[in-house]
Write a structure and sequence with these properties.
Order of helices and strands: EHEHEHHHHEHEHHEEHEHEEHEHEHHHH
Radius of gyration: 21 Å
CATH architecture of the largest domain: 3-Layer(aba) Sandwich
Structural class: alpha/beta
Low-confidence stretches: none
Distance between the termini: 24 Å
Helix content: 40-55%
Shape: globular
CATH topology of the largest domain: Rossmann fold
């Protein structure tokens, strides 16, 4: 079966879908991953066909408008930051996904590409939605933008309001593309858009049911599969400097904030270095996309650029990060305490879940983080034997799951069912 996966976003957004693509290809399918053009070479290094999409999330996140929005405490202001230039970018990205799916027999749409539902309907092929966050309304818990609950009715309302906000910001771009490309009338709402594909279309949530179980009010077609992990490429070797650093002393603390940029990366670097000094720990600091600046420091700290989390995290004493869905999953899998200082959106939700699981200490968000607070959290993560035992045990459970295998099984089953129900051509 020829399968096209479409997703827009950062490396953390793309990596789990690349892992799913690898799993599907290993099951005998031919997979194309349509993603930002700056990740094409990386995708191909895993033997997956890459279709470059004309969207560059990294460049967009360096724009002054986006950086200013991310510094705001206002959720609506943060979401508006994503709107900058979206009309043109989304049209180009969806055109590329349309071309990538021309010979596809199955379409998979990531969270950021859900507006591509018309691609499947126009080509009359089955499709699935995939997501890395709790993306569907439920009475069981509130939307990830809300960190408290007032009951089932409130929870449903929070999901509805979030979807409505997303639609106010991005709905125009979504609707314009379908009107220009296919001559179809604009959608009225996010729900109307998602319903375009039909009520049998499966949703696959790529996170562990041990972290967030499937709510009882979700439908049978809504699945929590387990995480989709991308293992380190077989030919990858750590830089000599990193290998030597790890061998020269006790396990260090990882500090990195992935795609989160900062208007003052030197300040965040100073916080990280001072926290390591106060806690008496060695550190591996990842520069990411501009959230941390390289500076001269002691031999107890090593700066790195791009090291696979699947290789690095199990070698750490604890991991400090921003709470992206993929990084959170990698920390849990490694079986070491996770210290999450969230920046925006679902990162707060993942931070709270880690604390509730007892595998990481409570942390202030990135705007309120100080060296003293980070040092105290690091000290707790290193010395709290009960927390370390829970983290190790939870890591074993996560590693025992087969989220990719479960996702492949669901996709194959639905494709077979769809084709059996397809009307016979006269």
């Amino acid at each position: 079966m020829k399968i096209t996966i479409c997703t827009f976003g950062t490396r953390g957004d793309i990596q789990p879908y690349l892992a799913l693509a690898v799993g599907l290809q290993q099951a005998g399918h031919e997979v194309t991953l349509a993603a930002a053009q700056n990740f094409a070479e990386w995708i191909r290094s895993y033997g997956i066909n890459a279709y470059p999409v004309r969207i560059d999330a990294q460049a967009g996140m360096q724009e002054p408008e986006f950086k200013a929005a991310m510094q705001s405490h206002n959720l609506l202001r943060q979401l508006q930051g994503f709107r900058h230039g979206i009309d043109t970018l989304m049209a180009e990205a969806l055109d590329d996904c349309w071309q990538a799916a021309q010979d596809a027999e199955f379409l998979i749409l990531g969270t950021t590409a859900q507006c591509g539902v018309d691609i499947a309907s126009q080509r009359q092929i089955p499709m699935a939605f995939v997501a890395l966050q709790e993306s569907l309304p439920t009475r069981a818990y509130p939307s990830f933008i809300v960190q408290f609950s007032l009951g089932g009715g409130f929870n449903i309302l929070s999901h509805t309001l979030f979807l409505g906000t997303i639609w106010l910001i991005m709905g125009k771009a979504f609707s314009q593309w379908r009107t220009i490309r296919f001559g179809l009338p604009p959608w009225r709402s996010m729900q109307a858009m998602l319903n375009t594909c039909g009520f049998e279309t499966p949703w696959l949530m790529g996170y562990s049911p041990l972290v967030l179980p499937k709510p009882p009010d979700w439908e049978d077609r809504h699945h929590v599969t387990g995480y989709w992990f991308l293992d380190t490429a077989s030919n990858w070797q750590p830089p000599d400097e990193l290998a030597h650093f790890l061998e020269s002393g006790p396990p260090p603390i990882y500090i990195g904030f992935g795609s989160m940029s900062d208007k003052d990366p030197e300040r965040r670097t100073r916080i990280a270095l001072r926290a390591l000094e106060l806690s008496g720990q060695r550190g591996v600091i990842s520069t990411g996309w501009g959230g941390v600046a390289r500076v001269q420091t002691s031999a107890k700290v090593l700066f790195v650029d791009d090291v696979p989390h699947s290789w690095l995290f199990p070698r750490m004493a604890a991991v400090v990060h921003h709470g992206g869905a993929g990084t959170t999953a990698a920390g849990l899998r490694a079986g070491v305490p996770s210290l999450i200082t969230p920046f925006m959106l679902d990162q707060y939700s993942w931070a709270n879940k880690v604390v509730k699981l007892g595998v990481g200490p409570l942390m202030p968000d990135a705007k309120r983080l100080t060296a003293e607070k980070l040092a105290q959290a690091i000290h707790t993560a290193v010395t709290d034997s009960a927390m370390r035992t829970r983290a190790a045990a939870f890591g074993e459970k996560i590693r025992a799951e087969n989220g990719i295998g479960r996702a492949v099984e669901i996709i194959e089953h639905y494709a077979l069912d769809f084709n059996q129900r397809r009307p016979t051509q006269p």
